[in-house]
Fold this sequence. Notes:
Strand content: 15-25%
Number of strands: 19
Radius of gyration: 22 Å
Oligomer: single chain
Number of domains: 3
Strand order of the largest sheet: 1-2-6-5-3-4-7
CATH architecture of the largest domain: 3-Layer(aba) Sandwich
CATH class of the largest domain: Alpha Beta
Amino acid sequence: xxxxxxxxxxxxxxxxxxxxxxxxxxxxxxxxxxxxxxxxxxxxxxxxxxxxxxxxxxxxxxxxxxxxxxxxxxxxxxxxxxxxxxxxxxxxxxxxxxxxxxxxxxxxxxxxxxxxxxxxxxxxxxxxxxxxxxxxxxxxxxxxxxxxxxxxxxxxxxxxxxxxxxxxxxxxxxxxxxxxxxxxxxxxxxxxxxxxxxxxxxxxxxxxxxxxxxxxxxxxxxxxxxxxxxxxxxxxxxxxxxxxxxxxxxxxxxxxxxxxxxxxxxxxxxxxxxxxxxxxxxxxxxxxxxxxxxxxxxxxxxxxxxxxxxxxxxxxxxxxxxxxxxxxxxxxxxxxxxxxxxxxxxxxxxxxxxxxxxxxxxxxxxxxxxxxxxxxxxxxxxxxxxxxxxxxxxxxxxxxxxxxxxxxxxxxxxxxxxxxxxxxxxxxxxxxxxxxxxxxxxxxxxxxxxx
Length: 451
């Protein structure tokens, strides 16, 4: 069944325009409640959000949808996406909701749904919920005496902070480390600095003054110059930068140089292998991960298994084949021993544990391989036109020519973003000039076809 509302990471779009309207949020809440109501007991959903202004519109709309179907609602306010996944499990809820557009600007918002096991929903379940949105919700409304109730959970942040801290090895401390943490004016602006401080670090928080409009604006993991400059200015030992809903993380070492998700996965996988904790004999990543990571892991006798882009697909592969480390170059790191989805704070603590254990600088601990040159271009498209630029003859010819030029010395990945109106063109290879030329030619062809 083809999905219309859901993309690669839930439902996403411009706030107060379809599909991110109060009306659609109400109907999605009703449809999700219908799907997950499976018995005579009192069903419950937990709702979290990031700091976007539009969250004030979408949160009550979804709450009303659940309540109208007889489902109780637990409201936790601004919380990281992985915190909602954790609370869904630990509070034995039937459904979890995160209202967030992740790394997108404040004008956008989104809805991410988690099942009772804390995992994101499969394509098939999302398609079934979409079918309910369009058909027969009125026949399943709760009678007046069985309407749901809504209440706020005041200690939700404390529960998540304690959960995250328990993933840090006992006997280690962050004493003596000065850490800058950029919370992107987003969902982790309260919890992230507290976790690091309670584990002993000297914390310099930035991006912790949300006003509804400034989430991800000039800060966070999509604006990494901010964390790199802050680390240098503060003379810090390292920096941690999160995105708007804190499900991804990147690191800046003490020199102000960025460490991406590929390096972080390499570090964690190698450390866990040495400790006998790594399952599956390797790491699950996407087609975006650098060939340097694959070669590094191969040198350790570990595999790199690639999936489609999207942390949900990484998690599905991890679960199906028994891996406990996976993620994306962008900083979604999934550690199956601790979390059901990407968790920027938990991943950061695993990196900090290695730094604390070795007593060495981040620049030496976190840089394990030299990445191959890689170029990524984002080409804006107009989704309302109905055509697919990738199907155009001129684009197909450009892609074929690019693959021929890179044959044997690199690789090419072209895909349409599932969260933004963009086509992403990535090339990787030994010859940097060649990959720049190939991506430029393909991007120009896409712009011509989309124009």
